[in-house]
Amino acid sequence: MQGFLKDSIEFLPILLQGLRLTLIVTAGSLVLSTALGLLWALMRVSGVPVLAGIAKTFVNTIRGIPIIVQLFYIYFVLPDLGISLTAVQAAIIGLGIAYSAYQSENFRAGIEAIDRGQVEAAQTIGMGWGLTMRRVILPQAFKIVLPPYGNIMIMMLKDSSQASTITVAELALQGKLIASSTFQNTTVFTLVALLYLCMSIPLILLVGHLERRFGRR
Amino acid sequence: MPMIELDNVHKSFGANRVIRGITTHVSKGEVVCIIGPSGSGKSTILRCINGLEGYDSGSIRFEGIPVNRTAKSITAVRTQVSMVFQRFNLFPHRTALENVIEGPVFVKREPRADAQAHGRLLLERVGLADKVGAHPHELSGGQQQRVAIARALAMRPKAILFDEPTSALDPELVGDVLAVMRSLADEGMTMVVVTHEIGFAREVADRVLFLDGGVIAEEGPAAELLTNPRNPRTRDFLRRVLKPL
Ligand SMILES: Nc1ncnc2c1ncn2[C@@H]1O[C@H](COP(=O)(O)OP(=O)(O)OP(=O)(O)O)[C@@H](O)[C@H]1O
Ligand SMILES: [Mg+2]
Question: What is this model's ipTM?
């Protein structure tokens, strides 16, 4: 135990650097996936067949490719096309796009759960599509969408470790690097696991709270 | 010129021919009740009038404007022809007053303060002055329907369409809603009301349409049609509605 504490104090600063990157990648891809997911979802429910078709094709394509392959594509293939990105940028974009598919399905389910009568009531007071979405549908869908959204956040936090495959020295990769140079596997990976838990447990509790608050009435 | 004109309107859902040639008109200040058996197309024809539903052929005009749900002009029609639904369809995330001012503020762009003042007046008029800040789930069905009527009135409509406004209500709550509707009729509001409340129709309607199988099977002044129907199917229908087994 003494040894564990001593090693921990030594390793923590380096691991915290990794943790910083984990947070950056997670937050960045969360914002991107939310924006894109909302866009796909709105295209799906727009009632315009071309837009709905584009969104559906895009979402299904993304869902059918492993995240790691998407990351490789963005980091290793795009430079050949003249677009070069830093590893962190590539990770944010790759995870953001990959997760936009899940976000979009969640948002769409939330939007479609709203009673048709709400749309009709909005239409009969002269609201168009945009106003109906903004004033009537989305505020109600928000509550339905929130608990699953929290779960997606937790998955993203954990999946940000996939950024290590394109050289982002986030928490998991930092851990692996320290472990392979010090051979303190137990200490290092226990610390890494604890650090992930410190971030995900508050989120898990938050989701539980949201489910109780907004769950099915 | 009549306010609402329907000319030989047809409408199918797939192979189901729901409206099969309806021609009628509603004049300013007139109260027209539509009665008829379930599935006869009452809701559908009402929903065609404000473009909630499209129609296949024939024409519907409101003050001369063709009602076309895909045209820009549909907004002009909808802001002048309000609608009240069987299931109220209030916005659950907004208070009674917010429900009422939603259209005036966000569609008609009235100043919020004016809309609120008008909204309070309307809620008072439907007997809900003390429920201004209540959310729909805190209100009874009858109260919700009166908020819905206030929401319709807030648009300062020229006509209001009602689709079985009391059918989802407990019997003891029907009276309050009908009283509000009666007072609107007395003030000269143009109303088209789909209803099973034959007593209300007899008392308030100027004219009654009996719909059967997507056509107007009989049409006439309320007192005449309801007490002395000529069409045997009207007679049959009225007998069943007035004396349920
Ligand atoms: N959106 C729809 N899609 C397919 N069929 C529909 C749709 N709306 C109505 N119908 C059909 O059209 C016919 C007429 O329906 P409508 O709702 O106008 O009848 P109604 O006279 O209002 O009946 P009720 O008294 O039961 O309300 C019914 O056969 C119904 O099944
Ligand atoms: Mg109906």
Answer: 0.93
